[in-house]
Write a structure and sequence with these properties.
The protein is α/β, with parallel strands linked by helices. Helix content is about 30%, strand content about 25%. It is built from 15 helices and 27 strands. The strands form six sheets. Strands 2-1-11-10-12-13-14-15-16 form a nine-stranded mixed sheet, with helices on both faces. Strands 4-3-5-6-7 form a five-stranded parallel sheet. Strands 17, 18, 20, 21 and 22 form a five-stranded antiparallel sheet that branches. α11 links the parallel β13 and β14. It is globular and about 65 Å long. The two termini are about 40 Å apart.
Length: about 525
């Protein structure tokens, strides 16, 4: 653990919030409101409880739960105790959850009401020693009660890590068919929070609505920033339009984050006009390209809202560039930049390079590479994947783009084999790996095609073995037994003709994708 005076620690944000905002609202959730002083006390108690359960410094603690005030407390308690927190995707299949728990060797897991039935059968024979229930109903058999642990433990001093010590593992899709654990350090998450504060106007008066899942950095990133600023976290378990409207009105929420599909849903909800949403001053969006018509409709329908676009990925601790509100508007001095993903954030270097790693001239399409304090040190126990992504200190994003003369980034294609549907990253290799396990499949190709609702959808072309008959329904049903539902193909073509291949025998997905994207400004 780093002990230098300049050390960056995840817990610094909480200590400062308790010190400077002790009586201010820290969390609001399910009828509970707690101050920063109360949250600080509870975090120190939960940290002590985790250590008493036998999870030692550097041990992994997983969380499989919907958003809540307790989720936020658990993130900081793990850091306070010097542990590594592993948020798990709430949309994963049982198989994916088992893999992640085994891969990170989690010693404890925190689970809410929705996931007790899924996790319970996994515990016998696993490395997980303790399962903690942080839900709202009575604690089920075999689980420890969250509130009892917090109440009975004596608060422990801050023994968290710092700087390049590991804080978390966030799993993302893998090209080989299994999720990859993106390692994030205390330095990474501290700097990511400061990026939000400097680029996206988060401050002590921020009343932030958490509707995006905290297992994802679009949901967890704002946790870091709002805590650093000493603002207020308002938590909803999931995205539900009427609950969003009611909470904004009741809590006077002034900051939100939504992916484009959520914004479109809110705009078209029949009850939207019944609620006062004027307290919102800022709305961050990202995760997938937003149709300009939807964005313009949002700007007109919600005139008090300033919209800010963010581009990034798990490997960059979320944000790599931001398009602030002023650039959404046409002015006499400049046209709007709504098709751009914005300017590189403070503290990050971004280049557009050719396949040899050389920077290309402005306006020329190449790959986005980046370096800086928010960049992951690599993938958990995957040195080869880490070396491929991080070359000479630069993260290779796999996104094709160009940079104009003023530094604005314009993404035009995706170089890596990934689909982004409804802000979820889906690697084609994961889906293909599942499809190939279905008896009767000779070959398949999975790629992104445009979708009016989700931005992109998972599309599969499947060739059966000679004499075999397959249906799209069979393929989807099979995939659902192996991977999360959102990763399963939403459209499938079954054909007898073999897929096109290169001279080296590789399936040419570009040829299969091209007809679906003709006439569009972006190929993603």
């Amino acid at each position: 653990m780093s002990t230098t005076a300049s050390a960056m620690r995840m817990t610094q944000a909480l200590i400062r919030a308790v010190q400077t905002r002790p009586r201010q609202r820290a969390t609001v959730c399910n009828g509970r409101t707690r101050t920063w002083a109360e949250v600080g006390e509870r975090v120190a108690r939960l940290a002590a409880a985790l250590r008493q359960l036998g999870v030692q410094r550097g041990g992994r603690v997983a969380i499989l739960a919907l958003n809540s005030d307790r989720y936020i407390e658990a993130l900081y308690a793990a850091a306070w105790a010097g542990l590594v927190v592993v948020p798990l995707n709430t949309r994963w299949s049982a198989e994916e959850i088992r893999f992640a728990l085994a891969d990170c060797a989690a010693q404890a897991i925190l689970v809410d009401d929705d996931f007790v039935p899924l996790v319970g059968p996994m515990l016998p024979g696993s490395m997980v020693r303790s399962a903690i229930h942080l839900g709202e109903v009575a604690t089920p058999s075999g689980f420890l009660d969250y509130e009892t642990l917090v109440t009975e433990a004596q608060p422990m001093p801050d023994e968290g890590g710092a700087d390049d010590d590991l804080f978390s593992i966030f799993y993302t899709g893998g090209t080989t068919g299994q999720p990859k654990g993106v390692m994030l350090t205390h330095r990474n998450v501290n700097l990511a929070g400061l990026v939000w504060i400097s680029s996206l106007f988060v401050n002590a008066q921020t009343v932030y609505l958490h509707a995006a899942g905290m297992f994802h950095l679009a949901g967890a990133g704002p946790v870091f920033a709002v805590t650093q600023a000493g603002g207020t976290h308002v938590c909803l378990p999931r995205f539900e339009p009427e609950a969003i409207f009611e909470t904004i009105q009741a809590q006077r929420v002034n900051y939100c984050l939504f992916v484009p599909t959520m914004i479109n849903t809110l705009l078209n909800h029949p009850r939207r006009a019944e609620f006062d949403l004027t307290s919102v001053h800022d709305c961050h969006y990202g995760g997938s390209p937003i149709p300009d018509a939807v964005l313009l409709a949002a700007m007109q329908t919600l005139p008090t809202w300033r919209f800010h676009q963010g581009y990034g990925m798990t490997e960059t601790t979320a944000l790599l560039s931001v398009l602030p509100w002023p650039y959404h508007l046409d002015t006499p001095e400049r046209p709007a930049r709504r098709l751009s993903v914005g300017l590189p954030v403070v503290g990050v270097e971004v280049r557009i390079v050719d396949p040899t790693g050389q920077e290309v001239p402005r306006g020329t399409v190449g790959e986005i590479v980046a370096r800086g304090g928010v960049i992951t040190p690599g993938y958990w126990h995957q040195p080869e994947a880490s070396a491929a992504a991080l070359q000479d200190g630069w993260l290779h994003t796999g996104d094709g783009a160009y940079m104009d003369d003023e530094g604005f980034l314009f993404i035009v294609d995706r170089l890596k084999d990934m689909i982004i549907s409804g802000a979820e990253n889906i690697y084609s290799g994961e889906v293909e790996n599942a499809i190939y396990k279905l008896p009767g499949v000779l070959e398949c190709a999975v790629f992104a095609v445009p979708d009016a609702q989700w931005g992109e959808r998972v599309h599969a072309v499947v060739v059966p073995k000679e004499g075999e008959t397959l249906t799209a329904e069979q393929v989807v049903a099979h995939c659902r037994t192996l991977i999360a539902g959102y990763k399963c193909p939403r459209s499938i073509v079954i054909q007898t003709e073999r897929l096109p291949t290169s001279a080296a025998g590789k399936i040419q997905k570009a040829l299969l994708r091209e007809p679906h994207w003709q006439g569009r400004q972006r190929a993603v």
